[in-house]
Every structure is written in C-alpha cells, then in structure tokens.
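Here is the promised in-class demo. Please do not try to memorize the tokens; focus on the logic of going from shape to residues.
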C-alpha cells in the first residue's frame, strides 16, 4: 500500500510527542544507542526520528514499559523514523516494541521493531523509505484496537478487509492470527517472523517446508504466494524453529506497494491420480494390437510446480511400447513429447515431466502407449500405473499429498 512520506531533515517543527528527555538524547554521536523508556506517544500526523541504533529498555514503572505508540489511522498516521545505514533496534519483546508504524531512511537490512497490543511481530526489509506496521488480528476482519484508549481502529490498512479464504492458485491455508502492512516504492527482500503464538505447526500441518509469504493483490482481491524460503538462521537470532519461532524471506526482491498486506500461509499441495481410459477393450485376440492412454489428473486447485514422475508396467503375455513423439493414442490427444521416457525393458516404463511442464489446477494430461497380445489363449496381463510419492512440486513437502489414489490397475485377457 503506497503512502507519501517526507524526509525528516526537510521538515521544521513537526514533532509533537510525549516522551522523556532521555528518549531523544543523542549524546553527540550519530551511531549512539538510544533507549525507549516507555509510554511514549507520537500523536497523529507527527514523526519522531532516531539517528542511531535503539534499545527498547524496560523501565521499572509505567503501564506499558518499553512501548512507543504511533497513530495507525490512515488520515492521521504517525511514524517512528530510523535515519541511517545498517541500524539495529534491539530489546524488542512482547512488552517493548513500537505499536504502530516504523519507517527507515537509509540502506542495509533493518528489522522493524513493530508489534500490536502486547505482541511483537517484527519484519525486515532493506530499501530506503520502507515503512510498515504489524497487526495481531485476523485479516478477514482487519480491525485492531488502540493500545492506550482501547477503542477499535477502522479497518486497516485501506483496502481491507482481506478474507483469508480468498486465495490464488498455489495458496493453501492463510494465517488468521496476524498480518503486516508494508509500504515502499523500492524493491527489497521482505522477511516476516513468527513466534509460538503464530501457531505455524497447525498452519502448515507440522511441515515447515510448506510455509510461504503471501501478499494481498488489490487487483484480484486474493492472497497470492510470494516465492520465499525459511531462513536457516532467523533474523531475530537462533535457528528457525516451527514451534519456537523464526523467519522467512522472499527469494527475490518485492516492491512493497505491490501488495496491500502481507502474512504467512501454507502453500497449496497437489493431489494427482492416474486412470487408464484406453484401451476401451480388455479382451484381445492373439496378436491383436491396441493403443492405450495413461491419464494423470490433478484434483486440486493448485498447479504442479515440479517434476511429475509416474511408472507404467505391463505383466507377461502382452508387449508394450511407447512412442516418445506420439500426439494421438486411442483417439485422444497425448503429450509424450513433454516427458522424458525411460524404457527399463520387460514392459516397464518411467515418465518424467520435462522442466516447465505443468499439470494445471483441476486438469489432466494424457500419455500414450501401444499394446500387443503375444501370449497364448487364457493369458492374463495386468497394466499398473503408479504415481511416485510426493511428486509434482519443487518442494517435496508440497508434492502429491494423497498416497491412497496413486495406483490404478487394468486387467487384460487373451481369448479365442
């Protein structure tokens, strides 16, 4: 979501704050470490700037020690600015953070010390002018409360709410616990964090590899998956852990204004199942030939994103061959040329989809083969098609999710 901001060096007399003198003391050094002594309010339309690193120290008194409050409402939004390169904000906890919007001026990765109503929810970005806030509430309602007054803000940010059931292809379950408003016109990697309260175990069915960043596309009114990967070492320190907390970062830079809101989600899994619609007949005369079709159907609203592997085998009494260039088999269009086909001999084949081949959501593809009855009368031959476990995704955690429908069998016979 795009918001206009002004350089704090170009503004005179714009700071209206309630703060202790220690909060603004710089000690004469640009990189001096500053401390939040709590109960600081940056009123609507105002700004306050730190020119060095900050430490959210917890004092002994105060109803909200360590918290700096800014105005979230769009018309009267206020900011805590950080001005400088490669700055840090330490000491962030559920009792010490910025409840509202933080903005960075300068280069280098910065972990934004944001939170909401007693819940820290930090994110990280690198580009100059990036700003954002954390909302500890369901994006479907997109309503949080003013920490000190207890009254509710209107739906925020503008353009909400953001129903978690409205998802694009490739997105499974979207978090109902939290979301972020991240703004900026310059592309940057985006990092979101989680803690135990984020309940990532339930969100991903205990598979951290399914976790992804999603963004709300205002053009489609859907949550869209943003290519991302869990950080081995969290931006908050320590190893990322599904239970204890961690971070996940986009694998490419994103212009923050592209999406109105960001949150965590589980990528959608796929469910592939095989059928054998050809040959139509199952009884063959000796020496008779027929064309066959192996159909792979994607039962989910999510397309495949990686190599699909399927095996096709035929028992004794029949001969099976596969033409890699076939485009028609049994009267049906087939896509053999889009697959790498391995002949193991004895009627056993492996089909591997080539790079870029996709089985679309709720769709299917056909593969062709040929049969010939070579055994004596009363011979029984069995065709077996088997989809490989967890196939069809670049990430094994999101590959084929249902092993109960991965095999199909057709019995053939030779008659007089």
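The designed amino acids, position by position:
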């Amino acid at each position: 979501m795009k918001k206009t901001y002004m350089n704090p060096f170009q503004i005179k007399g714009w700071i209206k704050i309630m703060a202790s003198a220690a909060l603004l003391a710089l000690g004469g050094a640009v990189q001096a470490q500053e401390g939040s002594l709590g109960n600081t309010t940056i009123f609507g339309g105002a700004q306050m700037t730190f020119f060095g690193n900050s430490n959210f120290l917890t004092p002994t008194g105060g109803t909200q020690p360590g918290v700096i409050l800014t105005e979230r409402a769009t018309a009267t939004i206020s900011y805590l600015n950080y001005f400088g390169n490669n700055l840090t904000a330490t000491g962030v906890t559920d009792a010490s953070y910025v409840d509202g919007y933080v903005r960075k001026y300068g280069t280098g990765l910065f972990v934004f010390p944001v939170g909401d109503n007693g819940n820290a929810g930090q994110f990280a970005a690198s580009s100059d002018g990036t700003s954002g806030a954390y909302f500890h509430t369901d994006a479907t309602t997109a309503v949080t409360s003013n920490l000190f007054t207890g009254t509710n803000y209107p739906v925020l940010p503008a353009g909400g709410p953001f129903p978690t059931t409205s998802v694009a292809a490739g997105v499974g379950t979207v978090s109902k616990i939290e979301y972020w408003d991240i703004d900026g016109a310059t592309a940057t990697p985006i990092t979101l964090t989680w803690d135990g309260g984020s309940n990532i175990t339930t969100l991903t069915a205990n598979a951290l590899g399914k976790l992804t960043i999603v963004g709300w596309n205002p053009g489609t009114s859907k949550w869209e998956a943003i290519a991302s990967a869990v950080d081995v070492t969290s931006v908050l320190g320590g190893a990322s852990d599904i239970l204890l907390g961690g971070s996940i970062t986009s694998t490419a830079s994103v212009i923050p204004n592209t999406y109105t809101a960001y949150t965590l989600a589980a990528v959608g899994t796929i469910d592939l199942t095989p059928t054998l619609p050809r040959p139509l007949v199952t009884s063959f005369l000796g020496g008779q030939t027929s064309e066959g079709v192996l159909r792979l159907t994607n039962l989910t609203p999510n397309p495949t994103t990686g190599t699909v592997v399927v095996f096709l085998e035929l028992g004794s009494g029949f001969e099976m061959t596969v033409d890699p260039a076939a485009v028609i088999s049994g009267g049906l269009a087939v896509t053999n040329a889009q697959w790498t086909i391995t002949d193991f001999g004895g009627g056993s084949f492996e089909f591997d989809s080539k790079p870029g081949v996709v089985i679309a959501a709720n769709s299917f593809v056909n593969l062709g083969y040929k049969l010939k009855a070579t055994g004596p009368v009363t011979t029984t031959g069995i065709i077996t098609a088997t989809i490989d476990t967890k196939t069809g995704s670049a990430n094994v955690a999101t590959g084929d999710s249902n092993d109960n429908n991965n095999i199909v069998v057709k019995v053939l016979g030779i008659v007089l």
